[in-house]
Amino acid sequence: MPQEKSSALRDEVERRGGLEKWTPKIETPEDLRFVLEQACDYRGDVTIATKDGRQVVGYVFNRVQEWAYQHEKKQTPRRVSNLAGEIWLSQNPHLEKQRLDSLHESGQLTDAEYQEAKALLEKGASGLADVEANTLKVLQDLLSATIPVSTYRATIMRVKRVGVLDIRSEPAGATVFLDGKYLGVTPLKLSNQPVGEYLLEFQCKGYEPARRRVQVDAGKTGTIRQTLVRPKPEYGELIVNAVPWGEVYLDGKHRGTTPLRLRKVLVGEHTVKVMNAACQDATRKVTIKKDQIIRLMMELRPE
Questions:
Q1: In whole angstroms, what is the distance from residue 81 CA to residue 68 CA?
Q2: What is the Cα gyration radius of the chain?
Q3: Rounded distance, CA 194 to CA 163, Å?
Q4: Closest by alpha carbon to 203, among 217, 182, 219?
Q5: SS3 string of 115-177?
């Protein structure tokens, strides 16, 4: 069967010296065959766009001369059919590893992301579970520059059905528990958290504990901002008497002379001292409890 000829396209390719840096206009099957043969004669780092809009970058291409695919032959993992015959794509693992190393060294991938991707590349495509196979496909898209790192992260999280929690508190330094399990102190970021609802708890000295329910969504970062509040002050009452009389000091601050009644003393431990110039000082520790009255009788000994 005679082949169609497109001298205009061939002349243009010859005039430009090849296919680099321009897109030929393909009008006939012969045009397609000619362009593919020209492109696939090149050996090195190339880019090819498939019909579904994807781009494959950094592969070595080998063409099969036969027009029809011989079905008795073993099919390779990557094969793209077209009107001109068959293109067989052979992935260059060293190139992928180099690109992965570059993303890690430039800080675009974390240490954990790098180690996980490296292990997946070493496994290869055979015998992977569904999640791993889908993850490998997304990784290959990243390494072929089809998608940016941000899209890669979000897609991986959706594939794995995990998300991220970005947890902060005011003030910072609060201890955080997730479903009763210690996470660390704020600010902190929890990655690769399985999708679901969790109980988040905050504890910080001098502040009331806080609890809230949080939802982790696949492929998304949940931002948690928790403002902690100081507890309302609680008071008790303290009555101090002494024999003989004396000046009363509470936690080092002069409060009056005996008999003395202090109606609002903060809950907690305090130091009471009674002084008289003619006597030895008397000191007592006292614990004030909420809404309770504490009575002290202090005996001062003569000097």
A1: 10
A2: 38
A3: 6
A4: 182
A5: HHHHHHHHHCCCCCCHHHHHHHHHHHHHHCCCCCHHHHHHHHHHHHCEEEEEEEEECCCCEEE
Q: Is 72 helix (H, G, I), strand (E, B) or coil?
A: coil
Write the CB contacts of 92 (distance below 8 Å, at least 6 apart in sequence): 58, 59, 60
Could you read off the pLDDT of 184-215 as tens digits, one per residue?
A: 999 999 988 999 999 999 999 999 999 999 99
Alpha-carbon distance of 251 to 259, in angstroms, equals: 18
Whole-Å CA distances, 7 to 14, 40, 246, 268: 10, 20, 118, 98
Tokens of 35: 């362009």
- Domain extents in the chain: 7-91, 94-160, 162-227, 235-299
CATH number belonging to domain 162-227: 2.60.40.10
The string of pLDDT tens digits covering residues 211-247 is: 999 999 988 889 999 999 998 889 999 999 999 999 9
Residue whose token pair is 């590349």: 121
> Are the C-beta atoms of residues 222 and 163 closer than 8 Å to each other?
yes
Q: Which residue has 């490998």 as its token pair?
A: 136
Q: Choose among 190, 132, 125, 128: nearest CA to 162.
A: 190
DSSP for 234-280 reads -EEEEEEEEES--EEEETTEEEEESSEEEEEEESEEEEEEEE-TTB-
* CATH number for the domain formed by residue range(s) 235-299: 2.60.40.10
- 162-227 and 235-299, same CATH topology: yes
Nearest to 216 by CA among 229, 201, 199: 199
Q: Residue 201 to residues 47, 159, 181, 185, 240: CA-CA distances in angstroms? A: 50, 28, 9, 11, 42
Taking each continuous run of H as one helix and of E as one strand, the counts in the chain are 6, 19
